[in-house]
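User: For this week's homework, look closely at the record that follows, marking any run of repeated tokens, and judge whether sequence predicts the tokens.
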Amino acid sequence: MAAKAPEEGFTAEPFVPERGGLPALRRAAAECRGCPLHRDATQTVFGAGDAHARVMLVGEQPGDQEDRQGKPFVGPAGKLLDRALAEAGIDPGRAYVTNAVKHFKFTQAEPRKRRIHKAPTLREMTACGPWLAAELAVVEPELIVVLGATAGKALLGSSFRVTRVRGTVLEEEIHGRRERLVPTVHPSAVLRADDRESAYDGFLSDLKVAARVLE
């Protein structure tokens, strides 16, 4: 019988506490060793926001600023997200924001050089899934806004394509719960777009769909 690849053993499951709210989850996640990403990251970046939020926004993974500060969506993409949410009629202060993967994955040509974001693998997303499942169970949002392809694959499987379903309302079983979801692009994709104004308008239009679901 062939030996298992190390990736097959990746899972956060043993680190997730059986009871306790978000503070207990956050404390436990700080010690997570469920996959190798913790080795190079500064710290775990757990979700943040209203523990009883009606809407949960799920992104890909922390970026450079998030890794340094220990909070999700505090960099340029987070600022754009807050602006778009407010314009769409969703109070950013009453939302819960998190990522499919809780550690920053990056490449770095040499020490002290800028750390370049690297997309997590499906195995790394799956390994981190128990944390997202626990957040959903505690917050019990009415709606999940899926920010980008990686978050979509983590929640809906590897066949997910954000361009096919963005701005639509989906109903799927996620981690044992029936959820409503509105997929859109990640705000960092808006920042990278050649036509940023058009990209922002599309992003805002998708968030307005989410706002209508919450009315």
Notes: DSSP finds eight helices and eight strands in the chain.
